[in-house]
Amino acid sequence: MPRLRSPLLTAAAALAVLGSLAACDGDKSKSAAMADSGDPLAQYRANPKYKAFMAGEKMSGYVFASPETQAMQDDDFENPGMLAVQDGEEEWSKVEGAAGKSCASCHQDAAKSMKGVAVSYPKFEPKRGKLANIEHRINLCRTEHMKAPELKWESKPLLGLTAYVEHQSRGLPISVKVDGPAAPFFEEGKKFYYTRRGQMDIACAQCHEQNPGMNIGVENLSQGQSNGYPTYRLKWQSFGSLHRRFEGCNQEVRAEPYPRGSDEYTNLELYVAWRGNGLKSEAPSVRR
Amino acid sequence: MAADIKPRIRVPQTAKKDEIIEIKTLISHPMESGQRKDSQGKIIPRKIINKMTVAFNGKPVFEAKLEPSISANPYLSFFLKCSASGNLDFTWTDDDGSVYKATQAITVA
């Protein structure tokens, strides 16, 4: 039963980390590590290797990963996320739907047409009257331009196409826009980020804004940046979407998750992407 | 399902005589352990790659027995010293009897 986890233990671990932090704030001399620099992120800032994975004070999840996980991401051959990119490459030129077209029929060479696209998503999509992320955008092209059915969220072909499109922006800085028609959706996402939820009554910000660099159970808390997504997650033993990660983070505090692809998670995705504006895309990343 | 299983290899195309080269392999495979249950509580049958072998010009140079606790998409790498040019043949054996193969030539100069 390798998948069995105790929610109570997880809850206790999370409360323990937040509790111990409160104590550290009260009396900094208590903790040697804290007294050293007063900042658990100082070690990452000081490491020149991480320069490419930072933008000012923003740090990619890569920085917080173990050397073994980093090595897996660094080598495209070892990186199992590249298998999803390969799947997507095959999907790209597959003819489907009543219009008799493939993605390639209209967008030709993805290396040119899709370069820099994914780092500007989610964005306001007039056809939806709300935000679209890359998955939504792909499905819009399927229904409208290919006359093909939508691909199911988290299905192999949709994960593959998302990975393939995102991969064309690897190395480019995240650069979402949050003004104009996107503004009200951004505000919704921001509200979500700061709202305490679940039985443990904890907001995203309390873990990822206030406590990065601290341990939570066996995990090293990161800033919760999205520049590596979609990602190959070792715990999942598979490739997965950012919304799947959001779902896990909601469950972590024993809150009811929203459906993947929902407006709530898409607005949140814009807020999270904006927090990371300037960080370079790592799609596909490898995470624990 | 079987269409999803793809072996990948990375082998230098050329090597100097007696140079030690690194061979990397990865096969996309779920490595279902046989220990997990589905939502109905029924055991999901075991299906793993249980063996991987490599031969150089027909002579075995590497063999691994894989067990159910090994992660999905098993990655294996090893080092090899070649004194002559030849073919490396890779074989992965699945619980269901399927055999997946890959081949690459190395020119030793």
How would you describe this structure to a colleague?
The complex is a heterodimer of chains A (288) and B (109). Chain A is mainly α and 288 residues long. Chain A has two domains: 41-46 and 58-76 and 177-287, Orthogonal Bundle (Cytochrome Bc1 Complex, Chain D, domain 2), CATH 1.10.760; 82-167, Cytochrome c-like domain (Cytochrome Bc1 Complex, Chain D, domain 2). In chain A, 44% of the residues lie in helices and 8% in strands. Chain A has 14 helices and nine strands. In chain A, the strands form four sheets. A three-stranded mixed sheet of chain A has the order 8-7-9. Chain A is globular and about 60 Å long. The relative contact order of chain A is 0.18. Residues 1-35 of chain A have low confidence and may be disordered. Chain B is mainly β and 109 residues long. Chain B has no helices and eight strands. In chain B, the strands form two sheets. In chain B, strands 2-8-7-4-5 form a five-stranded mixed sheet, with no helix packed on it. In chain B, strands 1-3-6 form a three-stranded antiparallel sheet, with no helix packed on it. In chain B, a hairpin with a 2-residue loop joins strand 4 (49-56) and strand 5 (59-65). The mean pLDDT of chain B is 93. Chain B has a single domain (7-108), classed as Sandwich (Immunoglobulin-like). Chain B has strands at residues 7-10, 14-15, 20-27, 49-56, 59-65, 75-81, 86-94, 99-108. At the A-B interface, loops of A face loops of B.
